[in-house]
Amino acid sequence: MRIVIMAVGSRGDVAPYTGLGVRLRQEGHEVTLATHALFEKLVRSRGLGFHPLPLDTQEEMTSRLVASGTSSPLQVTLAINKVVAEHARPMADAMLAAARQADVVLLSPAGWIGGHVAEGLRLPSMGVYLQPLTPTREFPPPTVTTRSLGGWGNRKAAASLRSVGQKPFRAVVDQLRTELDLPVLKPDAWLAQLDAARWPICYGYSPVVVPQPADWPEWNHTVGYWWPAPDPDAKPDSELVDFIAAGPPPVYIGFGSMPAEDSDALSAMIVDALRASRLRAVVNSGWAGLRAAGDDVFTVSEVPHDWLFPQLAAVVHHAGAGTAGAGLRAGVPTVPVPFMVDQPFWAQRLERLGVAPEAIPFRKLNAARLAAALTEATGNPNYRRRASEVASRLAQEDGALGVLRVLAQVTASRGPE
After folding, report:
1. 3.40.50.2000, 3.40.50.880, 3.10.420.10, 3.90.76.10: CATH of 238-394
2. Cα distances (angstroms) measured from residue 134 to each of 77, 125, 203, 310
3. Is residue 335 within 8 Å of residue 374, measured between CB atoms?
4. What does the domain layout of the chain look like in residue ranges?
5. pLDDT per residue over 306-356, tens digit each?
6. How far apart are CA 173 and CA 192, in angstroms?
7. Mean pLDDT, rounded, for 364-388
8. Which residues, including other chains, have CB under 8 Å from residue 102's CB and lie 6 or more apart?
9. Which is more confident, 170 or 210?
10. What number is the average pLDDT over the span 239-257?
11. Percent of the chain beyond pLDDT 90?
12. What is the distance between the alpha carbons of residues 297 and 402, in angstroms, rounded to a whole number?
């Protein structure tokens, strides 16, 4: 069966689908990942087919996010949505071209335009999401706030956000549906149509981390993590190997695809925190452009988390869904420094699991707070113990198997025409 996975976003929004794609390929399917050109090497090196989607997420999202700031999760969510909306027509065309070579389409949250494409081509489809987006009474929409709005408010806010997020795309979607000989529908009507069709969604994180809400429909499935596929040709940097072996386990500090207005100031603050806490560190430059130097600091541009994290004393990161999962998988304590969107949600989950001290919002980050958090995370054995317990539970899960089971149901029924 020919499967196309449509993934829109930053590296953290794309990498987990390489692991899912490899597993689907191992089961005999032909898998293509439709995503941005920035990630072509990542995709092809894992033996998967690649189809380009427009938008350079590093260049355009970074510049937009730096300009908008990170103080309001809702404003950041809307800013990101606006960036994608500006590319909606070429995005729709690229998804249509990719789907014409598919038997079934799998959609990431930001790839939802592919749902209209699949409907127009009469292809079965399903959601493969990395954040819990189905409305529930149990928590508010993770991309907006971590503060409960009450049961009714939580559910209403999430439902409203789904609808509001589609409005900037309205003209393009209407045009696309007309070209595909589909009736033009308002966003709420289209979402209601999906619900009526029992459109399945698999959530690629562990129920240990976010238990499935009791009020979710039965066609939503929390299946477990899809770990990024390792690069078969990757070899550890010999200097990094030597650095790790040369002293006590270092900590990791990296903020992934998060931008920084002043890379030099942020780098200097990190060095000050490391000196105060007397810890060695591996610093990931990332999209923030971190540059830390010193005998006890090693800066890397990219390194596999599954290889590096288990060797560390603790990890400091932006609490993106994928990096948070990688830290849990490695069984190491975490210091979450959330920037925006769903990151405060995942930081809160890490705290509740007992693997992390209190999160430090990025806008409140300074050397003293970071040093104190690092000292707490590495010095209190309870964090390491709890992290090890969570890692043991995650090791028993098989998130890709959950997708395979739902996929079998989807392709067997073909859904409503």
Report:
1. 3.40.50.2000
2. 16, 17, 10, 33
3. yes
4. 2-225+397-413, 238-394
5. 999 999 999 999 999 999 999 999 999 999 999 888 999 999 999 999 999
6. 16
7. 96
8. 2, 3, 4, 32, 123
9. 210
10. 92
11. 72
12. 41
Sign of CA dihedral 6, 415, 1, 306: positive
- Same fold? 2-225+397-413, 238-394: yes
pLDDT tens-digit series, residues 101-125: 999 999 999 889 999 999 999 999 9
The CATH classification number of 2-225+397-413 equals 3.40.50.2000
Going from the C-alpha of 261 to that of each of 154, 270, 322, 331, the distances in angstroms are: 33, 15, 23, 32
Q: What is the 3-state secondary structure (H, E, C) of the chain?
A: CEEEEECCCCHHHHHHHHHHHHHHHHCCCEEEEEEEHHHHHHHHCCCCEEEEECCCHHHHHHHHHHHHCCCCHHHHHHHHHHHHHCCHHHHHHHHHHHHCCCCEEEECHHHCHHHHHHHHCCCCEEEEECCCCCCCCCCCCCCCCCCCCCHHHHHHHHHHHHHHHHHHHHHHHHHHHHHCCCCCCCHHHHHHHHHHCCCCEEECCCCCCCCCCCCCCCCEEECCCCCCCCCCCCCCCHHHHHHHHCCCCCEEECCCCCCCCCHHHHHHHHHHHHHHHCCCEEEECCCCCCCCCCCCEEEECCCCHHHHHHHCCEEEECCCHHHHHHHHHHCCCEEECCCCCCHHHHHHHHHHHCCCCCCCCHHHCCHHHHHHHHHHHHHCHHHHHHHHHHHHHHCCCCHHHHHHHHHHHHHHHCCCC
Instruction: Describe the crossing of helices 88-99 and 73-85 by its angle, rounded to 10 degrees.
Output: 70
- For 233-263, b/e burial (b = at least 16 CB within 10 A) is eeeeeeebeebbeeeeebbbbbbbbbbbeeb
Residue reference for tokens 């899912």:
20
Which sign, positive or negative, has the C-alpha torsion 299, 303, 305, 306? negative
pLDDT band at 153 (very low <50, low <70, confident <90, very high): very high
CA-based angle 186:54:92, to the nearest 5? 30
Q: What is residue 256's predicted lDDT score, i.e. its pLDDT?
A: 78
Amino acid letter for position 201: I
415 pLDDT more than 50: no
